[in-house]
Design brief:
By secondary structure, this protein is mostly beta strands. The protein contains no helices and 14 strands.
Length: about 160
Amino acid sequence: MAEQSGMMASKYASYQGVITEIAEEMGRGCTMRYTMQTSEGQIINFIVDRHTYFVDNTPIYEGMEVEIFYDTNVPVPLIYPPQYQAVVVAPVVPGQFVKVDWFNWVLVSRDRALKLNVDESTPIFLENGQPFRGSPGNRNLIVVYRNTTRSIPPQTSPDQIIVMC
């Protein structure tokens, strides 16, 4: 991991944009290719398969605005448009945010951009929808949240946490 100004870069990155095409990846079983156009006009392809997590199980359609997260450690073919393996697909919902990152034992993200305030009422699930009973710390998490404090790092009480196994 690259270290910049004392902060570790996240393993996950994302693009946000509108889905312009959904197509089957020929010869790859139940694998789809989502083509996205960002607000800057960039075209990006994402490979979506059975390992891709969909926030709130939301069906995705052409014309929908989404944020797609990918693992920056996975090799990417040198082609145009760029093509990434989708890890998480989240619909863009006004006022709702999604963060995918590793959170330490005190629930601060690897990039130190978010701290989670979790209590017994916070819904915590596995990717398969089953309740997670352990501590979410020291794990890769998908965090869905709305408001944050203006502190450094910003803090939030998440709407839900999904533990990535």
